[in-house]
Amino acid sequence: MATALAKAAEGAESVEHAARIQHVSKSFTGPAGSQLVLDDITLDVAPGEFVTLLGASGCGKSTLLNLVAGLDEPSAGTIATDGRPSLMFQEHALFPWLTAGKNIELALKLGGVPKPERRPRAEELLELVRLKGSYGKRVHELSGGMRQRVALARALAQDSRLLLMDEPFAALDAITRDVLHDELTRIWAETGLSVLFVTHNVREAVRLAQRVVLLSSRPGRVAREWTVDIPQPRRIEDAPVAELSLEITEVLRGEISRHGQQ
């Protein structure tokens, strides 16, 4: 694709880090006082790298993603990214009164893309996520998986080199999720984007990533990292995926047990 998506691949080698998280901590103050959610997180994401953040519920994964996205500020430490990241949530957050194409065009408009260029770019992005011909469909006409594809296309429309994904497939059935794993892997390979993907599903983490980063239970700290050397394409039921998932699960269980959580 000779568009901004191709630029991401072209520019991937020109920077040292897509994201650099250095000694980041985050506390929230509530009725019970200050609560430390993240403690001294240091993590780099290389240009073009796919990293999954894994951990038990409440360990601060989404909080860290929000900090990287610039939606909140750390209590301590620094975060630097290669440009402004794009963010994809668990819910598609599409505007139901707009068509699939118009939802994408809105992101293009906010990004300063001239009006005559928006529809061709939106249609190109829909084709990238394998929804060619769906420009005029309303949100209620789309299945759950199709809505998440449109949400992904809208995130890609933001012309970012770093894509942040917060459990985007968690609400989908297993078959649809597996199909979207394949699609995301393909798009990542085609575009050269860097991806930081939050999940609590160990097999999903191993299925997708080049590197899995495990956060401890609250306060979240980097407990361990794994480099995933299993060649793509992978299937979630592949023996090497299952074997590494079992190893990571045992470490995760130990972290949960050590912190007294169920």
TrEMBL record:
Residues 19-244 form the ABC transporter domain. Keywords: ATP-binding, Nucleotide-binding, Transport. PROSITE patterns: ABC_TRANSPORTER_1 (PS00211), ABC_TRANSPORTER_2 (PS50893). Pfam families: ABC_tran. GO terms for molecular function: ATP binding; ATP hydrolysis activity. It comes from the Bacteria. CDD domains: ABC_NrtD_SsuB_transporters. This is ABC transporter ATP-binding protein. It comes from Streptomyces roseirectus.
